[in-house]
């Protein structure tokens, strides 16, 4: 092994890896040091080195913010909803799509399904605001059947549902591609053997496709769980209004308002850090659990 | 977190790049060419500003803009170089990155020298102190920019000048638009009082005023999520969100006064009676243009300079559509304020301390304020392209293809204009169709200014730092805005809800803010 490393080829390989390594160093690792501003009163012109230290002031300010628990609860809820409903959705869709034997139909469906991924949230938001508005098509159908028009966008109880389902609608096709790709690498002999043994389609999916996808599923899940408290700012901001703020305000929208509009860099970095710490704890513990139970892990 | 860390990292990289560039320039200007190059460089002026979503500035390709830069350079004798950043939030983010990296220009646009975008810049000596330079090189600046603007804390700190005001061009420009054809159809005059308005609103609701066969899709007033812009009625009760006034020796925001509750009650009445759309709060400001052209709304808050475009735009299937400008209806005490008396500052120029030729920059601005060529350029653009001259008679067609496509005339009147919002300039106004109507609109607008002598120059309050929820205006996410909407749609009881809001606002830092504001007021008025 060591001898091999000395050969010229290895050096070339290292050289090829260098830009990637440099990227991670410069854009991912060095910026981590920037987190110290959470403990400073950061001033843009004094820089990280000369800003005054503030200790845990910003963390205190965060935890004593009257709405902190509400924001935390909302972020957690949105994160859990998007994982519980959003995570299995592309897998399910991939399994279903995989069963389609009509090649052209499958291809077309696949393309149509991932098309929304390329639309910006402003457009998607606009479309659905129109659809869900009081005079929109959905409410027209409801009233035509004798129901009463529902104000979907201002009723707090619908907010999380709308955000979660729109997130799924927009991204499900795109996330599905990874699973479809993983499915192509499953050995077809397995299916043939199963067929010989009299397994039907459902059994094949259950006993062959799913287990073969397990490593992919676990890795994606572990990567996803770290972002539990991250929401899509554009998406949530678009649907946020005074009537649903109490259920819709999440960390990211709060940071957007306080940090970017109010110039509170240190404070918002403290919030970001809090989110990241929770993310790290989740990833590490889930990774451990997963290694013990499924044998799969990301490190 | 990652966004900010990335921002910091890229900052270091950017700084490295820009300092390298400066080094190259120095090398290039070596030897014999040096003196000549330096003289040339002194006439170079780089300007960093926002395109503010103006059609031509934001969408036209650079090569179409060059002719304007060349024309201005030719007229002024300076070599101007504009760089347009984004608008609104984008602008703030981009600008803060530029400040962090030090990659600035000779003239930098900001909303105030105390802006959050570059917090602490004045204390850190980032901006050049301009007082002595203006005294020496800017006689026209002194003369033409009013005292009310120079005194503003947006340019002035402890009596020292760090910024040059760019003027809004008119002391007041907010006004209401009514659909005259709808008024005619109802045989009504423009509502003079709130009671008149209620009668008008009822008629709009009952009749099919847009003539599409459906009598139930018309609303008397357009409201959207941008309430700060669409709110026309709080002033009829003598208050405006965002304003502070002295009450019993204390400087307090208007939003916690009992008059504000009356105003909310009036909006609630409009809402309950179906005079405004039920889901107005989910309406984006950008979509309201559609409602207006479809004839779904009969009146809305607007600005005088919008009149030509809105009056001329197409109203499908409504051949008689016509706009009338009017002041808002008067309230119970005869008031109808639509705007706060302000310092007339549109935005502020700053000159970074690193700029090499600040006296030349001041001279350039002085030229822009003082010379008739500049007046002409910032009103009519380029001769034989934007306007023609026949026997000394100037011909400017605002609807001509070179002026109207992408709203090209806004480029020299507004976007490039280093003095003011030139759309409000009398030279630009007098060539518009219906210019007498528009000029009258400006006069009317002036009568709706809410007196603001108590707090016009109040600096940012420390007590509100990091607490956007306490902002005393229609700012998204503020307690006031949330409460306003909840009370209007009846989610909370008006009296209980409003009192609870006042209590909450005060408790969460509002009391401290009032104390700080009062202290400031007392200290400035002792002199």
From TrEMBL, chain A:
Membrane topology listed for this record: Multi-pass membrane protein
Annotated compartments: Cell membrane
Keyword check for Transmembrane: yes
GO biological-process terms attached to the record: transmembrane transport
Pfam family, any one: BPD_transp_1
Domain spans labelled ABC transmembrane type-1: 72-286
Transmembrane segments: 12-30, 78-97, 118-138, 158-183, 204-223, 265-286
Keywords annotated in UniProt: Cell membrane, Membrane, Transmembrane, Transmembrane helix, Transport
Listed Gene3D superfamilies: MetI-like (1.10.3720.10)
Keyword RNA-binding: no
GO cellular component: plasma membrane
InterPro entries per the UniProt record, alphabetical: MetI-like, MetI-like_sf, UgpAE/MalFG_permease
Family: Belongs to the binding-protein-dependent transport system permease family.
The protein's name: ABC transporter permease subunit
Source organism per UniProt: Paenibacillus mangrovi
């Amino acid at each position: 092994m060591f001898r091999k490393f000395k050969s010229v080829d290895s050096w070339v390989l290292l050289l090829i890896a260098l830009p990637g390594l440099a990227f991670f160093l410069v854009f991912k690792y060095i910026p981590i040091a920037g987190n110290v501003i959470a403990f400073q009163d950061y001033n843009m012109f004094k820089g990280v080195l000369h800003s005054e230290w503030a200790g845990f002031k910003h963390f205190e300010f965060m935890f004593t913010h009257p709405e902190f628990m509400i924001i935390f609860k909302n972020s957690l809820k949105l994160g859990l909803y998007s994982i519980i409903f959003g995570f299995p959705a592309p897998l399910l869709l991939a399994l279903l799509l995989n069963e389609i034997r009509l090649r052209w139909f499958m291809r077309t469906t696949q393309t149509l399904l991932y098309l929304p991924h390329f639309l910006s949230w402003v457009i998607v938001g606009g479309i659905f605001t129109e659809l869900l508005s009081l005079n929109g098509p959905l409410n027209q159908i409801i009233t035509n059947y004798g129901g009463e028009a529902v104000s979907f966008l201002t009723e707090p109880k619908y907010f999380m549902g709308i955000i979660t389902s729109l997130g799924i609608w927009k991204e499900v096709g795109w996330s599905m591609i990874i699973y479809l790709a993983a499915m192509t690498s499953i050995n077809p002999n397995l299916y043939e053997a199963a067929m010989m043994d009299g397994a039907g389609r459902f059994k094949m999916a259950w006993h062959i496709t799913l287990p073969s996808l397990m490593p992919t599923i676990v890795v994606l899940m572990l990567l996803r769980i770290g972002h539990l408290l991250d929401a899509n700012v554009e998406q949530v901001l678009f649907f946020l209004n005074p009537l649903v703020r109490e259920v819709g305000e999440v960390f990211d929208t709060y940071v957007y308002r306080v940090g970017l509009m109010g110039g509170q860099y240190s404070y918002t970095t403290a919030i970001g850090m809090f989110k990241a710490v929770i993310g790290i704890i989740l990833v590490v513990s889930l990774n451990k659990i997963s290694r013990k139970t499924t044998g799969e892990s990301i490190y | 977190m990652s966004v900010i860390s990335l921002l910091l990292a890229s900052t270091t990289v950017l700084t490295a790049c820009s300092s390298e560039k400066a080094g190259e320039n120095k090398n290039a200007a070596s030897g014999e060419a040096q003196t000549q190059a330096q003289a040339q460089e002194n006439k170079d002026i780089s300007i960093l500003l926002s395109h503010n979503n103006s059609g031509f500035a934001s969408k036209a390709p650079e090569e179409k803009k060059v002719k304007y830069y060349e024309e201005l350079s030719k007229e002024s004798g300076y070599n101007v170089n504009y760089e347009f950043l984004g608008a609104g939030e984008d602008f703030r983010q981009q600008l803060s990155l530029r400040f962090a990296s030090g990659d600035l220009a000779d003239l930098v646009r900001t909303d105030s020298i105390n802006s959050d975008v570059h917090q602490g810049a004045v204390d850190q000596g980032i901006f050049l102190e301009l007082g002595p330079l203006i005294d020496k090189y800017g006689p026209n600046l002194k003369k033409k920019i009013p005292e009310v603007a120079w005194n503003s804390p947006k340019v002035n700190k402890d009596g020292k000048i760090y910024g040059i005001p760019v003027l809004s061009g008119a002391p007041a420009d907010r006004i209401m638009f009514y659909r005259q054809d709808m008024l005619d159809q109802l045989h009504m005059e423009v509502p003079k009082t709130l009671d008149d308005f209620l009668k008008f609103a009822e008629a709009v609701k009952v009749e099919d005023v847009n003539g599409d066969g459906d009598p139930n899709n018309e609303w008397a007033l357009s409201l959207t999520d941008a309430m700060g812009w669409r709110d026309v009625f709080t002033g009829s009760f003598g208050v405006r969100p965002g304003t502070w006034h002295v009450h019993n020796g204390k400087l307090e925001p208007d939003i916690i006064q009992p008059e504000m509750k009356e105003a909310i009650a009036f909006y609630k009445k409009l809402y309950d009676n179906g005079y405004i759309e039920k889901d107005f709060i989910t309406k984006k400001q950008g979509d309201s243009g559609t409602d207006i052209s479809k004839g779904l709304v009969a009146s809305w808050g607007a600005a005088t300079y919008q009149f030509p475009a809105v009056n001329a735009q197409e109203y499908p299937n409504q051949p008689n559509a016509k706009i009338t400008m009017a002041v808002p209806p008067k309230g119970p005490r005869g008031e109808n304020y639509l705007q706060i008396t302000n310092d007339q500052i549109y935005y502020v120029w700053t000159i970074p301390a690193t700029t090499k030729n600040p006296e030349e920059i001041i001279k350039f601005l002085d030229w822009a304020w003082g010379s008739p060529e500049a007046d002409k350029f910032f009103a009519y653009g380029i001769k034989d392209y934007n306007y023609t001259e026949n026997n000394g008679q100037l011909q400017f067609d605002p609807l001509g293809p070179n002026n109207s496509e992408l709203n090209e005339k806004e480029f020299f009147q507004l976007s490039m204009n280093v003095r003011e919002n030139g759309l409000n300039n009398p030279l630009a106004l007098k060539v518009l169709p219906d210019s007498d109507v528009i000029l009258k609109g400006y006069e009317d607008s002036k009568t709706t200014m809410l007196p603001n002598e108590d707090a016009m120059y109040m600096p940012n309050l420390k007590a509100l730092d990091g607490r956007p929820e306490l902002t005393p205006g229609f700012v998204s996410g503020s307690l006031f805005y949330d409460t306003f909407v909840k009370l209007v749609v009846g989610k909370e009881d008006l009296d209980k809800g409003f009192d609870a809001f006042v209590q909450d606002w005060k408790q969460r830092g509002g009391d401290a803010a009032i104390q700080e504001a009062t202290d400031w007021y007392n200290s400035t008025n002792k002199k």
